Amino acid sequence: MSINNQEPNNSMLLQLNSLSIDETYMFRCLQIAKSGLGSTAPNPMVGAVIVCDNKIIGEGFTSAYGGSHAEVNAINSVKDPSLLKSSTIYVTLEPCSHYGKTPPCADLIIKMGIPKVVIGLKDPHEKVAGNGIIKLEEAGCSVKVGVLQKECEEHHRRFLSYFTKKRPYIILKWAETVDGFIAPEPTKRGEEKKPYWITNSKSRQLVHKWRSEEAGILAGTNTVLADNPQLNLRDWAGNPPTRIVLDRSLKISKDFHMLNGKQKTIVCTEITDSKLYVDNVTYKIINFNSDVPQQLCNVMYEEHIQSVIIEGGSQTLQSFIDADLWDEARIFKGANNFQKGIKAPKLAGRILKQVEILNDQLTILRND
């Protein structure tokens, strides 16, 4: 898709002042590329900018999956195509060189006669992997690679994790009380189950926004049985993630939200009797006695899920932490306390950000 120019704010201006000309235009590519978050997967969310005589004449970002790539949208946004023959196209990721749902972007750049291509990052996809660069250079294009490379790697971290680590980008998310509990003690049989909230409504809305940005969302059996979560989007517009649930012996019955068929759902189990399966749900057989987190990563890789939020419960979260299979953790701390209950997971990582959301504190960690 193409978008109109946006006026930079003061913080952007400070950053832009320290950049070279090529870096400045690549920075703009990264800005507009974010517009594709949550809709382009399994394609990467690429940004492209076309410059002629130091003036931006075209911009584009990757359309929703199945649609045009960023380079195509940027080229189509140029009002005077004759200018392309004296222009430079900036793109966050190497232009593709193979046929997929759309023709190769490298071919279009060559066809339109764009003489110079500036690339942030080489594409690790085995069908590209430098072939786009080679094709452009063999056609006579001047190609520069590695402009704002670290920033482009950060932006494309989901895509890179999938193609270099062969697993999704893994985000752990939970809310804990001031005294470190993720949930109160489970109710005893016959006792009334009382609803509880650790975080405020603004934090809960933010979680729904996050769900719209990632390809998958995962929860364990106990969490589903205890809370009957929907794991959908109610407080935010967007595409709902694929739900992945652990259910070793198929304890979750079809009347639970998780199996309502309203969004794609994958159940990982050891039960092979398909007569017990629910319609409109995908079932994957895994071995629950051996390295479950890695097997879940394998399932998600096979299903082309490039990023996942793991929302619980505590045991499931801790299993990924213990296996060192996580990239980012988003931890809310509410203002209340339970005094007793289910303890929150424990992990160590680099603090990326700490912010307050009304009376909640959000800490984001990275696993460097």
From TrEMBL:
Its EC number is 3.5.4.26, 1.1.1.193. Its cofactor is Zn(2+). It catalyses: 5-amino-6-(5-phospho-D-ribitylamino)uracil + NADP(+) = 5-amino-6-(5-phospho-D-ribosylamino)uracil + NADPH + H(+); 2,5-diamino-6-hydroxy-4-(5-phosphoribosylamino)-pyrimidine + H2O + H(+) = 5-amino-6-(5-phospho-D-ribosylamino)uracil + NH4(+). In the N-terminal section; belongs to the cytidine and deoxycytidylate deaminase family. One of its GO terms (biological process) is riboflavin biosynthetic process. NCBIfam families: eubact_ribD. This is Riboflavin biosynthesis protein RibD. The active site is at 71 (proton donor). It comes from the Bacteria. Converts 2,5-diamino-6-(ribosylamino)-4(3h)-pyrimidinone 5'-phosphate into 5-amino-6-(ribosylamino)-2,4(1h,3h)-pyrimidinedione 5'-phosphate. Pathway: Cofactor biosynthesis; riboflavin biosynthesis; 5-amino-6-(D-ribitylamino)uracil from GTP: step 2/4; Cofactor biosynthesis; riboflavin biosynthesis; 5-amino-6-(D-ribitylamino)uracil from GTP: step 3/4. Binds 1 zinc ion. Keywords: Hydrolase, Metal-binding, Multifunctional enzyme, NADP, Oxidoreductase, Riboflavin biosynthesis, Zinc. NADP(+) binds at residues 175, 197, 223, 227, 313-319.
